[in-house]
Design a protein that fits this description.
Blueprint: H1 5-11, H2 18-25, E1 28-33, E2 36-41, H3 42-45, E3 46-48, E4 51-52, E5 59-64, E6 72-80, E7 87-97, E8 103-111, E9 118-119, H4 121-127, H5 134-143, H6 158-180
Antiparallel strand pairs: 1-2, 1-5, 3-4, 6-7, 7-8, 8-9
Length: 181
């Protein structure tokens, strides 16, 4: 009945919630093993299903999340598996708005869709610098699926997970932008 954030991150379950949040938050991880100490960024931590940047003999000793900037909103949206509550697809979004309502910064982390958590960089690039409204969010969300090798299993086909990725991204960006405003 117990688990830790660090343990969940080191486990790297492709449907866990924390990896998407860590990606969107641009977390860093302090790793130790023997006399060696190193820091790994979230985007480099999750290599594959149940596989991280941890080497044999290393452990995760610290998780650091940077403070959110002013005018930043966040959201985590997922379609959960009813039995396990793990994400069929989960999307974490952080949006920072400039004074003119344009997107000063956006980070989007996706979990459950593919074999490991990833950033939706094409969606981030599209939204950056644009006025954040329903139209720009919809167009950014369409780009969220780029580069993901979608999983197919009893919980959903690859096409279904692709659809969920776009929809959960739209919901997460909408809520994050609303909170930023």
């Amino acid at each position: 009945n117990r688990g830790t954030i660090g343990g969940a991150i080191a486990h790297a379950d492709p449907a866990a919630d924390y990896p998407a949040v860590m990606m969107a938050s641009e977390a860093t991880f302090r790793i130790a093993g023997g006399t060696r100490r190193r820091t790994v960024r979230a985007e480099r931590m999750f290599a594959d299903a149940y596989t991280t940047a941890l080497d044999e003999g290393e452990i995760l000793v610290q998780v650091t999340l940077p403070a959110m900037q002013t005018n930043t909103g966040w959201s985590y949206q997922k379609l959960a598996n009813r039995a396990s509550r793990f994400a069929v697809v989960g999307v974490a979004a952080l949006v920072t708005l400039a004074d003119d309502g344009s997107c000063a910064r956006v980070r989007i982390g996706i979990t459950g869709a593919g074999p490991f958590a990833t950033r939706a960089r094409a969606a981030e690039r599209y939204l950056a610098g644009r006025v954040v409204d329903n139209a720009s969010i919809a167009k950014a969300s369409e780009r969220a699926a780029k580069g993901i090798e979608f999983l197919g299993d009893v919980h959903g086909s690859p096409a279904y997970r692709e659809h969920l990725t776009k929809e959960m991204t739209r919901r997460a960006l909408t809520e994050a932008a609303g909170r930023a405003a």
